[in-house]
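U., I forgot to send this yesterday:
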Amino acid sequence: MEKEELLIEKACKGDKRSFERIINLYKNYIFAIILSFIKNYEEAENISQEVFLQIYISLPKFQEDNFKAWISRIATNKSIDYLRKKRSRVKEEKIDYIESIDINPRLENIKGPESLLLDKEKKEDIKKQIDSLPTIYKKTIIKFYLEEKSYKEIAREEDLPIKTIESRLYRGRQILKKNWRKKDDSL
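Result:
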């Protein structure tokens, strides 16, 4: 597309009108990509703004033949980054909630202090066991059990086949079982 190449060239040289025309050409396309990930109209609008800012910043470095594919990648990456941050916030909220349950005074009436201490120690042991795993197994176990992601979601994020994720979960669990048994045997 001759016209597109000329617009890109002018925009790279600082022509704001050319960049505005690029935005007008691709705004619906970019928005559709983001909305397919985010599923929230207002958030998709915000991320669209971030995408166009990133395109503006990165445009002088653009050296590919397929501009549409390039901006699609930027939109996809921004959407994935947003989802990761959102999941991270949700995970932190879950952890805060779980920790608040541990110190909730009403629970002390149900369980004695010894029982609460044992539960806390067990959670710490589990965290230590997970942290001792090789990184590929640790990441997969955390995503599956703590972040509650499906095999398919993890496979998509890691850009791996589902069978690989299943295998990593299986091996990670086997290592955890083995380490847990060693710990129990040493007591």
